[in-house]
Amino acid sequence: FLFVSFAGFASGLAGGAPLRATAGAVSLAGLAALVPLRRLDAFRRNASTLLLALVAAEFVLWIALAADVSLALALVSALLPAALVSLRLRPVEVAVLALAALAALGVRAASPDPADPQPMPVAGALAAGGAVVLVAAAVGLSIRRRQRAELLDGWARVHGAERERARMREELEGARAIQLSMLPRTTPALDWLELAAVCRPATEVGGDYYDYFELDAGRLAVAVGDVAGHGVAAGIVLAGVRAGLHLLRGDLERPEVVLARLNELVRDAGPERLLMTLGVAVFDRDGGRARWISAGHPAALRFDAASGEVSALEGNCPPLGTRLPTCFASTAAPLAAGDVWLLVSDGALEARDRRGEAFGEARLAAALRQGAGNGARALVDELVAELERHRDGHAAEDDLTLVAIRRSVPA
């Protein structure tokens, strides 16, 4: 219609037809006004009605001002199909627009220009215009039905996918709540050990685990584990190992026996790729020592209060769940006043900064040496803050677990 309006304006000026030139100028101004108006909320809310009225008015205007009936029919044949196909009108709107164009065409044919030597009969003009309108309306309505069906089908798929995602989120949130409930709700209140821990899953359902087991009045076992991977499968394996530890808690004074039995449990629980590292530290107040046994778990770090040095207690046994020969054996170390043990998952050692550099055991040992005298809870908080500073906003790629055990200093 911009093209038609400009042509009418130019031809009106050139042919001495001021009415056509004025109509072209007004039409051009109205169409140009749509550019800013279409951004207004009021226009968007009534866009369908306004566009229909505009298109109908343009058809009536230019059919009435056409130089002859043949030109008016050509206008209807050229622009009406484009309008009916592109605007995706409803059936009622198609009828309104078609009737407006045909009525204007009929009026134009009924009042021919006296200068036209061969005026077109009204019936012929309406028949030709009606045929064009019917074909264009049929095509437009067919396209609209197909697009509507595609839209509804697409909406149904999106809605179904969103419902499935919502269901999965709900299940994952439930699994996360169950997993977090498997962690100790309280810390044992002991007058000879200070205990503090933190466990932060990297995803909805993580694979890290820690727990405390009071064997008797003077002995405590602390377990730290990490299932390979994340998700529901890791959570299921973790739940099985936790249940096994609680069933075998009476045997934790011999942790190598417990690890051997848990290895069979994980190995028979599923495919070979479901592995779990597990470390158990047993602290003996009366014996003044601690024992550490590891099934593929990162080394336990021990701060010696007397010397101020940090040592790593390694373990050379494979993770739980492999078909490899097992060789579970524990390592003993003194447990004196002020000594601090730090048990971690690999999420602490492998925490990476923006350059991809891992935090590493050396930094962890240095942080332990610096904060060992501040108490178990303060030490854990300082380590978490140090890891956050190292990551510098980089997202955590693995679960993080830290457990600090400090031998209390007699008052």
Word description of this protein:
It is a single chain. The N and C termini lie far apart (94 Å). It is built from 12 helices and 10 strands. Helices cover 53% and strands 17% of the residues. The strands form 2 sheets. A 5-stranded antiparallel β-sheet has the order 1-10-9-6-7. The chain is α+β, with helices and mostly antiparallel strands. Helix 1 packs antiparallel against helix 2, helix 4 packs antiparallel against helix 5 and helix 5 packs antiparallel against helix 6.
Key features?
53% helix, rod-shaped, five-stranded antiparallel β-sheet, alpha+beta, single chain, 10 strands, 12 helices, 411 residues
Inertia-based shape? rod-shaped
Q: Which segments are poorly predicted (pLDDT under 50) over 5 or more consecutive residues?
A: none
Query: Mean pLDDT, nearest integer?
Result: 82
In which range does the helix fraction lie?
40-55%
Total E-strand runs: 10
- Counting DSSP H or I runs of 4 or more residues, the number of helices is 12
Q: What is the strand arrangement across the widest sheet?
A: 1-10-9-6-7
Terminal Cα span: 94 Å
Task: Give the amount of beta strand, in percent.
Answer: 15-25%
Major β-sheet annotation: 5 strands, antiparallel
Structural class: alpha+beta
User: Over all CA atoms, what is the radius of gyration?
Assistant: 41 Å
**What is the succession of H and E elements?**
HHHHHHHEEEHHEEEEEEHHHE
